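Translate sequence into structure tokens.
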Amino acid sequence: MVNPRLALLHPYPFERWRELTSDIRPPAHLLPISLGIGEPRHKTPALIEEALVQALPALSGYPATAGEPALREAVAAWVHRRYGVALNPGTQVLPVNGSREALFAFAQVVIDDTRPGATVVCPNPFYQIYEGAALLGGAQPHYVASDAARNFAADWDSVPAEVWARTQLLYVCSPGNPTGAVMPLPEWQRLFELSDRHGFVIASDECYSEIYFRDEPPHGPPIGSLEAAKALGRDDFRNLVAFTSLSKRSNVPGLRSGFVAGDARWITPFLLYRTYHGSAMSGMVQRASIAAWGDEAHVVANRELYRTKFAEVTPMLAQVLDVKLPDAAFYLWAGLPAVCGGDEIEYARGLLAQYNVAVLPGRLLAREVAGRPNPGAGRIRMALVATPAECREAAQRIVSYTQELTRRPSP
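Result follows.
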């Protein structure tokens, strides 16, 4: 016997994409370029590598699930520098092994599946961990479509009052994946008011917070959930927990290091859960994380590299696709021209087969709900994580491929 809820899980987007392209043999004379997976590929900063090596002796002892005080203090200091928010390192900060496992595990702490109609609200399109966490926790996901008129921000007003009434957990992703949309302060205020009215917890996924394109609004530093709470007089961060990772900020996806911070009334039971779950962060990783959170120079350099790539690639792709600079993050959420018939899966298959460029079809990142169209249909997600030269080359191939499609006679 296995947990019957496992049967509710959808295949992960990249697993599904491998299935859909298993018959394709891309041209060998073209260098393969992948814009499909959001895996940072810039060089890991030397200071992090050095700290990791120097911490080898930490392997001789079991790490504490709560993390070393020095790490919690380093995180709290970073939050204060970045957002102007003061946290108690002992009660409001908890190190985690990357935001992915924490976003999943947190739902298992929050969801009470003995309450009828337990619901988890999440954006649509979305990071599939939200859905899986809800389903395995015994809750029903409610998907909130994005609003193209607002640069694909989630349309929270579309959620019926009866859904909010049974909601236990709300996943927010700002900057968003895959759209790059950033939530402004009035939107946070609306969600805080709903949380107060209905008692649900907000899990704010902020792992793309340090990748933005200008130092001034509207594409300047994205507002964080803790920052928004403080601005609105919610200094206790009630029913709010923020999730942040080093993976994108510091180019260390393999380090598996991040933190959660916010309402101590939820950090405490989450720590209890993680103590039983065997989720302690390696002492080596903790020392390297302290070095990473304490340095901003490498973050500025990393952000500058993304800015350069987006400035070069976005205008090129805009010649043939419906695409513009996002609010933040390292994705382009591009609409296909009418000649493609809205079938982004066939478009992406053809691009891979003819030009050896991988992108991710939008409908794999979203769900069709109650007969409404899948909000990812007719769109592709491109992660500009490759080198600048590779991103330019990929853009040129996409332009050529799309122009070829427009010249083909209609069937």
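Note: Residues 309 and 388 are 6 Å apart (CA to CA).
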